[in-house]
Structures
1.
Amino acid sequence: MKKQDNIILRRIGVVLGLVLLLGCFLFWPLNSYIESPGTAADLQSFVKIKGHPDRYKGNFMLTSVAIQRAHPATYLYAKMVPYMSIESAEDVTGGQNSATFDRVQKFYMDSSINEAIAVAYKAAHQEVTRRYLGIYVLQVQPNSKFKHDIHVGDTITKVDGRHFNTAQGFQKYIAAKKVGTPLAVTYTRDGKTRTVTHPLVKIASTNKTGIGIILTNNMQVKTKIPVKVDAGQYGGPSGGLMFSLQIYQQISGKDLQKGRKIAGTGTISSDGTVGEIGGIDKKVIAAHRAGAKIFFAPYIKPTNEILKYEEGHMTNYQMAKKAGKKYAPGMKIVPVSSFDEAVKYLQSNK
C-alpha cells in the first residue's frame, strides 16, 4: 500500500511539474512587447465646450495601438498574425519604467490637446492665447551632472535666472558655454520650484554643450470660451489632428461629419501641420472594425532619404494605403499634411 501511495505521489508531482512548466510558457514575461490594433473611440465624449455641444450626426474617432507585454505563447501567436508586431522593450519604452513611461505618454497627450485647442480656436476665429512655461524633461541622460536632481516630468523654467520663450532660446544660451561651466537650473515639480547648479556636459549626439536631457516644449493654452478635453487612459501625441477637428466642429458650429464615421491619426503643430506617427497600419484596422468610412493619414513626400528612416521604409500614407487595401476594403484613406487640408476635404466631399 505504501509503494502504491509513492507511485501516486510521484504522478501527482509530475502533473504539477507539467502544469508549472505550462504556466511558465503561457505567462512568463519576456523583454518585448506585442503591438496590435487597438480601439477607435468617439471623440464627442472627450470634448466639452461651454455653450457649444456636438449636435451633429456622425463621429470623429481617435484610433490607438494596443500594447501588451509579450509572453511565450502570445509571442508565438503574434508571429503568425501579419498585422501584429513584436517590439523590444527598449524600442517601446526607451528604457523607462512603466510609471515614467506612462507619465511621458500622458504629457504627450496633454501637449497635443493644447495644440489642437489652439489650432481649432484660431481657425474658428475664437480668442486663444498660448503661454510658454519652459522645457519639459522627457529623459535625463546617464552622463548628466543633474541626474540626481532633475527627473522626468520636471519643467525647466530658467537657466542662470533667465527665462526664454522657446526651447531653442534655452539651447542657444547653453550651447554658447563651455563644457564644465556651472549652470543654475530652475525647475518645477508638483507645483514646487527648485534651483540646482551643476557643470554642463558634452552631448554626444550633437557634440554641443548641454544639460544632458531629452526635452520638449511645455505650453499652456487659455481660451475665452471654456473648453475641457479629457483623453482618459489614452496617451501619446498622435491624437492631435482628430482632436483639432472635433474641437473645431463644436466651437465653429460647422457640420464637418455630415453623418459620417471619420477616423484618423497624426500629430498637430501650432501652425496646423500634421506629423507622422507609429503603428498606422494597426490604426487603420481599428478604424475599419469600428465602422469608419474615412481615415486621415499624415502625408509627407516619399523621397529616398526619408524612406531610409521610415517604419518599413514606407511613409505613413503609403503604409496606411497598403493596410487599407488588405484589411479595410471600402474605407477611404485620405492623405493630409495640414489641419486645413482635412477641413477642406470634409467640407467638399459628402
2.
Amino acid sequence: MHRARERAGDDRLHDAGDCVMAEQLAEAAVADCLRKLAVVFADFEQRLEATPLIRKLTRGRFEVADYHAFLINLRQQVKDGALWMSRAASNIGEDHLELRSTLMRHAVTEHRDFRLLEADFTASGGALEDIQSAPKNVGSEALSAWMFHEASKPDPFGLLGAMFIIEGLGSIKAKPWGLKVQERLALPDEAVRFLLYHGDNDAEHMKEFEEMLGMVLPDPFIAERIVTTAKVTARLYALQIEEIAA
C-alpha cells in the first residue's frame, strides 16, 4: 500500500512537471512568434508611410476628398472582415473549440463596423450612395480573395497572422490618423468615429490575440504559417492603400 501511494504521488508530480514544461514551451513559442510578427509589422508600417495617401496625411496636405477616398476603400475590407472571420471559425475543428468561439465573438463584435465608416462619410459631407456603391480597388480585391481563400482551409490558424496585422494597425495607427484627419480637416468627432473607436479598442484585441496564439502553439509549422500569412496580408493591405488615388 505504501509503495502504491508513493507511485501515485510520483505520477502526480510527473504530470505536474509535464504541465509546467508544456506551459513554458507554449509561452516561449508565443513570444518567439510575436517577435517575428513585430518585424513584419515594422516593415508594413514603412510601406504604409510611403503610400501617397498617408504621405499627404502626415505632411499636412490631406483634403476632404482624400478622406472620402480612404473611407470608401476601407469600407470594402471592413465589411468583408467579419465574413472571412466567420468562415474561418466554421472551419476550425473540435480540438480548438475555444479558438472557434473567440473568432465567432470577434465576428459578431465587428460585423457592423462598416456602418461606422458610412456614418463618418456622410458626417464629413459625402453622399451615402457613393460609399455604398463604390467598387473594390485592385488591392482590396486581392486582399479579400486572399482572406477568404485562407479562411476556407481546414483549421486556418495562419489567419492569426492576418489578424495581427489588421488589429495591430487599429491599435497603433487608427487613433493618430484619426486625430490628424480631424485636425487637418476641422471635422467633428462624429466624422472620425471609426478611427478613434478602433484606436481605443483594438489594444484590448491585441491582448486577446496573444491568448489565441497560445491555443495553437507550440507547433513550428503553425507558427511559420502565421508569420507567412501576416507577410502576405501586410503586402496586400499596403497595396489596397497604394491604390487609393491621392
3.
Amino acid sequence: MAIRVLLADDEAMIRAGVHAILAAGGDIEVVAEAADGREAVLLAQAHRPDVALLDIRMPRLDGLAAGEEIVRTVPGTAVAMLTTFSEDAYVARALGGGATGFLLKSGDPHELIAGIRAVAGGAAFLSPKVARHVIDGFGARRMGRGAEARARVSALTPREREVLGLVGAGLSNPEIAARLHLVEGTVKAYVSAVLERLDVRNRVQAAIVAYEAGLVPEAD
C-alpha cells in the first residue's frame, strides 16, 4: 500500500516541487496539501495520513506547533519537518514535540523519499546535516548525562535494552525483528514497553537515552 502523506508549506511552488519528488518514489501518495499550520492540523485530523510533512515557518500556526498538535490528536500519524532551517533550537523543539523526522529542503530528493519511508515505518530519520548537530550535542552532554541514562535503562530487561540499542541505531521494527529473530508484533510490544518505562514520547527520545547510556551498537 502507498504511504499516505500530508504536505504543508505556505509556498505553492515548494509544495508542487516536493509533491513531484514524492510521487517519483512510486510508493508515496500525497493525500492532502495545506498552506498553513492550522489547516495542516485540520487536514491531518480529517485524512489521518501516515506522515505529516511540515514546513516550520508558516502563517496562523507554525510547523513546530502544528506538529505537536498532530502528535497529540492524530497518534497514528508520524510527523516530519521539512525546512531550510537546521538551527539547534528548531531541531530540539521538533524532536521534543514528537517529530521523528527532520529534513532540509536543500537535501537530495532521494534523502527526502528515504526519510518519508523511514518515519512511515516507525523509524527516525534526520538529514545528515541535522544529525551532525545532534551528535555533536550528544557528545558535549554525554559525560554528564551518561550516569543518569544508565540508571534509567537499568530498569529494563536485557531484551528491552537490546531493542533500545537497536532503536538508537536507527533500525525500524522490521529490521529489529530480523536482527533479533523475532516477529514484528513482538518487537512493537517491546518498543512500546521501553517507551513507557523510560517515560519518553517517541523513538527519537528513546534513541537519545540509548546513545547516552552507551547502548547503541557499533555499525556493522
4.
Amino acid sequence: MRVLVVEDEQVLADTIAVGLRRESMAVDVVYDGDSALEHAGVNDYDVVILDRDLPGVHGDDVARALVEQSYNGRILMLTASGQLEDKVEGLSLGADDYMAKPFAFAELVARVRALARRAAPPLPPVLKRNGIVLDPANHTVERDGRDIPLTPKEFAVLEVLMRANGTVVSAEGLLEKAWDENADPFTNVVRVTVMTLRKKLGEPPIVHTVPGAGYRL
C-alpha cells in the first residue's frame, strides 16, 4: 500500500510516516499543497492523508483538484478543525474520511487500511491464498498454521502479491507499491526482498518468478 502524507507540521508528518512504515506501508511526505499535487500527478497513491490548512495551495483546493481529476486514491482529511460543520465541509469537498487532531494512531492506521480497501477491487480484510493467511490489521502471516515472521518490506511485497489474486506483478509494480519515492529503481532491492520472502515462506515455493514479466503468487 502506498500513502502520501500532506502535512505542514513537519515533526507530525514525519512521525506519521515512521509509524505507517512500521505497518509495512510505503509512505511519501510533503509539507505543502503544491508538492501534494505534484506528487499525486506522478504517483498512484492508495490513500492521501491531507491537512486542510496548508501553505501554498490550500488543502481544500488540493482535495477539489484530486476529485476533479477522478483520482483513484482515497482522501483522508486530518486536521485540527474538528467541529461538525468542518467535517461536513471537508467531506463535501470530496474527502472520503475525516479525522480531527489530536488522534489515536491506531485509529488512523485502521482508517487508512479501510480506505485502501475501498480504493481497489473489494477484498476481505484477511487475505488467504495457497495456505497463506495474511492479516494486515494485526501484521501477521501464517502458512498452514505456522507463524512466518517477516520484515516490513517482505510483508508489504507479500500483501501486494496476494492482492493481485494470482496475476503477475512486475518488479516496477512492486517497487511502486511497497517502496517510497526514495527507492532507487536501478537497484536489485525487489529481487533480494522476493528471494528472502520466498525462503521464509518455505517449501514448496509459492512465489514464482515469471521471466521477463515479474512475480506471481
